[in-house]
Amino acid sequence: MAVSASDIRSALSLPSSSTPVPSAQPAPRKSQGQVTKKPEGISRELYALIGPSAPSLVAHLAKPRLKQKPNLSSGGKVKWEWRTFRNGARTDSLQLGHWAKATDDQNAEYPFTKYNVQSPSFAYSQDEYTQLLEDKDWTNEETDYLFSVVREYDTRWYVVHDRYEYLNGPARSLEELKDRYYSVCRKLIRNRPWAGDEASKAQLLNSYQFDKDRERMRKDYIASLEQRTPEEIAEEEALFIELKRLEQNERKFKKERDDLLRTLLGIDSGLPDIVAEEDGPSALSAEGFKKKKKNANEIDIPPTPSNIISLGPPPPKRAQSAKSVAYDAQHCIIRVEPPPSAITKVTHVPVHLRSFKLPAPKAAILPKVTQALTELGINHTRMVMPTRENCARLESLIEASTALIDTKKIVDRVEQDIRVLRVRLGRQSEGPGEDTKEGTPMEVEGGADGEGELKPEVDGRAQSIVSTRSGRGRKQSRRSISVSSIDTSASARVGKRQKRV
Amino acid sequence: MADRVRVRGVTIHRPIIYGNTATVLTPAERETSHYPDHTHRWTVAVRSATSAPDSDVVGGADDLAYFIKRVTFKLHDTYPNPTRNIDKPPFEVSETGWGEFEIQIRITFVAESGEKAITLYHHLKLHPWSVTFPLPNATSVPAEPEIPSPENAAKLGPVHSWQYDEIVFADPFQNFLALLTAHPPTPLPKTSLSKKPVPFHMSNPASLEASLKGGVPEFTSAMEKEEADRLEEAKGKIIKEQEKWRSILMEKEKELEKLQKLLAPKE
């Protein structure tokens, strides 16, 4: 467009000369006049063209704005600072440092602490070992050694197998170690009283399933798979394709045969009605066959202990449908599997009140169990609502109490043995020997203390005192081994008696 | 004859309650009665466990006559005709008296069941409940419960003593099973809809307060759950103790082993 002198002057802010002044003045006025009507959202020229007509303006302004970019950078600066922290899972209070946002909570727990998951480890007592865990291939010491190694290396089996070095023992393969460990764990779970219901116990039990032979076979298979030569692989593939083709042919053949039979004989052909058949092996077989296949598939998947998703054993008989379950519940019917031995006729259990058959503890420990339960506020002779479930709960409660009392008895027995041995140790040494005053039965370091105090102080009188004391102590200890009170302060009482002497 | 085959592997039960209610006789009633020394009127009964809605008795929603032929209540010998046979519902006996004694209840079943009669015992409760058994840490035996005076007793309202139980039939005959399934029992409500008090039971002394709310008590499945919770809690405590003692045992075994090793070389 033509650039006038006035434009240049105004651009350069030059003082205008006298002649062009009148032209300069209308120019700014014109531009001013235009500036006051500054349109929004559209360019100035466009507005000049359209004019201030509302619809087109509105339509133009209503044009959707393009999506704005999301503000990713949190709008502003983030301050980071160097902080030292402690990992809650560590036992050694090591302090490390890391960069953390200044806005982060100062005292928040280190987020990776929760990943320090320990798997439940099992510890068994000697008594449990002799009762449940004896094995001809494994001595007690070797089993103990195995458990300690497993615990140290956190059940990581390859490491455990590598580090396992039991002197004078046979070479153990990985499967043998796992087999021994898991069978011990399973026996312990089964025989210890379990807090919680049967279903969770069965789940836990399942997680410790381990079949040594299957594992070995599986590993052999995998190894052999790896070692196939290319010709073998090609051969296998060819066989597989052929098998598929054969199956397809068979299916087609059967279908044609069925169709033919149906057309020939109609309703009397004895074939099942035409169902919407889906393509797949299930179309071939009747339902029973399908179920058998499914069951077989389930068994094939080897239940390994690492399999967290427990499959559970395939049901031997079909589970009840929901309707029959509801029916049974409504009529208070309980179905029990009739015992497989149909040879001996089961004598009929006569009608009875459920409270007649309340579980009762064995006569030998009955008073102790009663006392224990009374302390907990339970009366095992009369129940408020003796339903089947509550009676089952009472039974497991009594079982647990029985186990507890047995354990306490064994503790006392071991107690007594320890005391006897200590006495003998004391008598063997020349001097006063071990101090029966210290070393209360609860201390673990009792043995070590006894050893430390074997001072060869020869004091004839002291010796005789010791021998009489220990003699009497022994008699006393024998007398006091009656598990009369559940508090089992019997041991503490014995200690006091010895002190008085 | 096929009906007389036993259905193996099936156990069917029916929930019942048995017990008594007792109220103090008013002075006016006592004056006009034949036995002026009787202080209470009581009713002993065998009923179904679920209470009928808007009923003023405990339980009794279902009629038990379909499997119970007769209930015999044997009262104390000082009562005339102490053997009371009740051949049709309601299976209950009402009497007046002054003392608590044991009532023998014999339930005879219908012929189709092919079962013998069962006997249960119920201690007739006339005086209000109070918790008197020794607490675990008590040093002295608490005194016998005080029997309130007639005025106070009347204020406290009727006394209830009921026991829930289930009659269990194992391997029933075919026709008996059909008979039973023709009469499904009304299930216990989860909680008392009409806010009736909880029936008191000595095994659950904590229920004493709730039972004194006033009104006719009702059995609910909440009571069952409460007992289940108590049992589970006790079991949990015992198992914790058990684990503690097992670890003590293991420590002691280690100690014993150490001592044995010490002893061995010396001998």
Total DSSP helices of chain B: 5
Cα shape of chain A:
extended
Instruction: List segments of chain A where confidence is low: pLDDT < 50 over at least 5 consecutive residues.
Output: 20-24, 30-35, 277-318, 432-501
How many helix segments of chain A? 20
Would you give the CATH topology of the domain at 126-226 in chain A?
Arc Repressor Mutant, subunit A
CATH structural architecture of the domain at 126-226 in chain A: Orthogonal Bundle
Helix content of chain B: 25-40%
Stated plainly, the CATH topology of chain B is called Immunoglobulin-like
Q: State the distance separating the first and last CA atoms of chain B.
A: 80 Å
Which secondary-structure class do the elements of chain B indicate?
Answer: alpha+beta
CATH architecture heading of chain B: Sandwich
On the 0-100 scale, what is the average pLDDT of chain B?
Answer: 86
Overall body shape of chain B: extended
Strand count, sense and barrel status of the largest sheet of chain B are: 4 strands, antiparallel
Catalogue the unreliable spans of chain B: none
Structure description:
The complex is a heterodimer of chains A (501) and B (267). Chain A is mostly helical. Among the domains of chain A are: 89-114, no CATH class; 126-226, Arc Repressor Mutant, subunit A; 358-409, no CATH class. In chain A, 52% of the residues lie in helices and 4% in strands. Chain A contains 20 helices and four strands. Chain A has a two-stranded antiparallel sheet. In chain A, strand 1 (80-86) and strand 2 (95-101) form a beta hairpin. In chain A, helix 9 (174-191) packs antiparallel against helix 11 (212-226), helix 16 (366-375) packs across helix 17 (388-428) and helix 19 (460-480) runs antiparallel to helix 20 (490-500). The model of chain A is unreliable at 20-24, 30-35, 277-318 and 432-501 (pLDDT under 50). Chain B is of the alpha+beta class. Chain B has a single domain, classed as Immunoglobulin-like. Chain B has helices spanning 27-32, 150-156, 174-181, 207-211, 221-266; strands at residues 10-24, 40-48, 68-74, 83-86, 91-97, 102-109, 118-123, 159-170. Chain B has a four-stranded antiparallel β-sheet. In chain B, strands 4-3-6-7 form a four-stranded antiparallel β-sheet, with no helix packed on it. In chain B, strand 6 (102-109) and strand 7 (118-123) form a beta hairpin. Chain B is extended. The mean pLDDT of chain B is 86. The interface between A and B is large, with 73 and 72 residues.
